[in-house]
Design a protein that fits this description.
The protein has 19 helices and eight strands. By secondary structure, it is of the alpha/beta class. The radius of gyration is 27 Å and the shape is globular.
Length: about 450
């Protein structure tokens, strides 16, 4: 038992502190000591994380494409272990929503061909799926908290204090859960939570590894941590890599406290305390926020090293890294509170490259109107470029037809939407109507054009 805790490690570091670089150094030592890549497993939270790890491993550790396949997301790893199932993808989701409105005895009459080419799991969200999105988000949330049965999910709903979930009736949860379960069983399908739950069954065996490295662990839910725990029991050295200050996925059930409380000897905790990414002003703001957090709620407590900005002190062998640090100091970044959109005039110039981010589309609309007022194109005249391409393909006179038909069809769609939404600024992409008009022109050619003329 003592040896078990000796072989558990934590690597803790903020944004740009070199967590991936530290992982590469650790693996180099193992491989130099004779460890084979097949004896190592690397788990990433998101696909982007996995892709970065794979690219770095190929470049710095000289691993082959086949060898870097052992670097996967936790869901991909579980799916590989549980056998063949169809994926609950976007087409399956549309099919399910259609069947949800009918009696289960008539489902067979609505069957359509499955789309097995789409390996992307479909997610539920409130924006596109309205109330169903809220219901299935609750069910997914509950399952990540390790509530598998309907009774457990209903109890989770009763005890949850999120206001949006309070609008859901127990009968609605029961109806949706039972029908989704039936639909997946009928089609031999699995969703994200199924992959994790099925991998935890006793007769699903994980192989033994010498080293397992799990990245971005602060974003894992209790259900995902259960998978890591199962892996850890068969692993000699387990490395948990993350930052408890960046635990921002609580809305989907992530529990950073599990990372903080995971048993580990103090001398096996590595703190990476210098960021090579954050400009000085951004760093200072982050420190003000972090300093408001009780030290006892962070890994290392009061003994934790102070997070430092990028800087150069003393001789350095890596001149390129030193130059980057100097740039962070010389260009400290911009951090300002804006009280009026007109203040952006001094920040965003006509030829600027900028990204404007907001929590949701509703909050983006004021910036869209501002950019239009300034005459700044958000996406680089995409519709005009599309028309130019279609004109060169079909001929100049086709543009008149395409503009006329696309405008009419856009009005036909827009007017009811504006009435329903009661919002004159409701955004409608125009490109799809251009494509529809060009498709119509391709089918009819000059015949319809002459008729309209």
């Amino acid at each position: 038992m003592v040896d078990f805790y000796k072989r558990r490690h934590k690597i803790v570091g903020g944004p740009g502190c070199g967590k991936t670089t530290e992982v590469m150094k650790i693996l180099k030592k193992y491989f130099k000591a004779g460890l084979q890549p097949s004896q190592v497993l690397m788990i990433g939270f998101a696909r982007a994380t996995v892709q970065t790890l794979q690219e770095r491993a190929q470049e710095e550790l000289h691993l082959s494409e086949k060898q870097v396949d052992s670097i996967k997301t936790i869901h991909k790893y579980c799916r590989d272990k549980i056998g063949f199932y169809e994926v609950f993808n976007r087409k399956a989701k549309r099919e399910f929503i259609k069947k949800l409105k009918t009696d289960t005895d008539n489902w067979v009459l609505l069957d359509t061909a499955k789309d097995t080419s789409d390996e992307e799991f479909s997610m539920w969200d409130e924006k596109t799926d309205k109330k169903l999105g809220i219901i299935f988000s609750l069910i997914g949330f509950a399952r990540h908290e390790r509530n598998k049965t309907l009774e457990q999910i209903l109890e989770f709903h009763s005890n949850h204090d999120d206001f949006k979930f309070s609008r859901i009736q127990r009968s609605e949860i029961k109806y949706c859960f039972n029908n989704l379960t039936l639909f997946k069983k009928y089609n031999n399908m699995i969703d994200f939570e199924d992959m994790l739950e099925k991998a935890l069954v006793e007769n699903v065996h994980f192989p033994k590894y010498e080293v397992v490295i799990v990245d971005e662990v602060q974003d894992l839910t209790p259900l995902e941590w259960k998978v890591i725990s199962k892996l850890g029991k068969l692993t000699k050295d387990l490395y948990l890599v993350g930052d408890d200050d960046q635990g921002i996925y609580g809305w989907k059930g992530a529990d950073v406290k599990i990372f903080q409380k995971w048993p580990c000897r103090e001398d096996n905790i590595t703190f990476l305390d210098k960021t090579h990414r954050l400009p000085t002003k951004i760093y200072n703001l982050s420190q003000k926020i972090i300093n408001d957090v009780d030290p006892n709620h962070r890994i290392g407590g009061v003994k934790r090293k102070i997070f430092k900005p990028c800087g150069v002190s003393g001789p350095t062998e890596n001149l390129e890294k030193a130059a980057k640090c100097c740039n962070k100091i010389n260009f400290p970044g911009i951090l300002e509170t804006l009280y009026d959109l007109e203040e952006l005039n001094e920040i965003i110039k006509i030829d600027s490259n900028a990204i404007l981010c907001a929590r949701d589309w509703k909050n983006c609309q004021q910036y869209v109107r501002y950019l239009k007022y300034r005459g700044i194109e958000g996406m680089g005249l995409g519709d005009a470029k599309l028309l130019l391409f279609l004109g060169s393909w079909f001929g100049i006179k086709s543009i008149i037809f395409i503009l006329l038909v696309s405008a009419l069809s856009a009005l036909i769609v827009a007017i009811p939407l504006v009435i329903i939404k009661k919002d004159k600024n409701f955004p409608i992409p125009y490109g799809c109507f251009i494509v529809f008009a060009s498709f119509l022109y391709n089918l009819t050619g000059d015949t319809l054009f002459k008729f309209l003329s």
